[in-house]
Amino acid sequence: MYKVMIVKINFLKTIWVFLSLYLFVSCNIKKVDKKEDKNTYQIINYITKEIKKQSLLHPVFPPSPDKSSYTYTTRDSLNKYKYFYEQYTKKKIIAFEENMFVIPKNNSLFINNCKINKILTKKRLSINKEKRIDIDKISFSKKDSLVYFFKKENLRKRLYDIYFLIGFSRIIFNDNFTEAILIVNVSYERLDSFSILFYLEKKGGGWEIKCNKRLLIS
């Protein structure tokens, strides 16, 4: 009887150890997932705003077509800035590719004159599944509309309705979530699209682009 009780106690102890270990590992995984999710949407917000900012052409004053010494007046300047302001403030529809794609293995992550953490290039091999973007987690101007673009849709027709289409790869982070690398696809019109490889660092609680490289232009 005594031996049976000892066996039962040891069995219960073993179960307790396994349960504790399971709970510990599960909690750590959840913490990492929360960190990844938080930093993912920080980067998506940041990159999307940068793309929008660069798409707006600031007022410029080209030389007169007849090469005369025409002097731009205050009224000319005001009209230019008025047009820029109207373009800046009007409502825009920004479409997001539904899923964050996996960076193809044959894509080089090398950027000239930029030292990239080797851990990031190694970790890319462990990311082999797409992940759906939640546009409700993207904090953008209230006057703009954020929508999904689905693969089955006709891109040519859709580009007439939207300001630009943007697609993100899965973001590769280092273990401390202070460095990240990703590819972003952007389309403005049927013949105006490009892909950029971004390498970012987190400083002072915010993400900054350390360097980037254009991969494709059409």
Features:
218 residues; alpha+beta; 7-stranded mixed beta sheet; 4 helices; 26% strand
Question: Layout of SSEs?
Answer:
Elements: H1 2-55, H2 74-89, E1 93-97, E2 99-100, H3 118-123, E3 131-132, E4 145-149, H4 155-158, E5 164-168, E6 172-173, E7 179-189, E8 192-203, E9 206-217
Describe this structure in words.
With 218 residues, the protein is an alpha+beta fold. It has four helices and nine strands. The chain has helices spanning 2-55, 74-89, 118-123, 155-158, and strands at residues 93-97, 99-100, 131-132, 145-149, 164-168, 172-173, 179-189, 192-203, 206-217. The strands form two sheets. Strands 1, 4, 5, 6, 7, 8 and 9 form a seven-stranded mixed β-sheet that branches. A two-stranded antiparallel sheet has the order 2-3. The termini are far apart.
Order of helices and strands: HHEEHEEHEEEEE
- CA-based shape: elongated
Please state the CA-atom Rg, rounded to the nearest Å: 25 Å
Portion in helices: 25-40%
Unreliable stretches: 22-29
How many E-type strands? Answer: 9
Largest sheet: 7 strands, mixed
Which strand-content bin applies to the residues? 25-35%
Quick take:
This protein is of the alpha+beta class and about 220 residues long. The chain has helices spanning about 1-55, 75-90, 120-125, 155-160; strands at about 95, 100, 130, 145-150, 165-170, 170-175, 180-190, 190-205, 205-215.
